[in-house]
Amino acid sequence: MSDGEFENTGSGASLTVPSQASGIKKNGYMIIKGRPCKVVDCSTSKTGKHGSAKVHFTAIDIFNGKKYEEISPSTHTLQVPIINRQEYTLVDVDQDGFVSLMSADGSTTKEDIKLPADEPEISQKIKDAVENGVDMIVAVLSAMGEEKIVAAKESN
Hints:
The chain has 156 residues and is mainly β. Helices cover 8% and strands 50% of the residues. The strands form three sheets. It has a five-stranded antiparallel sheet, with helices on one face. It is elongated. GO terms for molecular function: ribosome binding; RNA binding; translation elongation factor activity; translation initiation factor activity.
């Protein structure tokens, strides 16, 4: 067998970590229906006559804002996404809404992120900064292979 017969693909294992359902709290993160979500409410029912305590989660998808609900036994293992927040210096915005960003050390640029459609105030703030020549720092949240601009502020 030659090396070229197998295709290298990511296992996805490094995108999440396991956590017991009872350990996930409000403002924490979890995977519901394959989507990374932020928990906005959770409640635990008492142990019943025929089973274990259940945890009821209400969570919002961090990328598209959809609301999800999940009920799980408190002893079950659930997946928690690995969330990264990175700050970049704003360079430019093209006519299609793609943002050019530079890493803090200036070694790499990123041009594959669009202005956040569901956050019009952040998008407008970024557009205004480019038009007026104001230096901005943009925060990008990434999880499970997706990225989104979540904040923008003037750099000092």
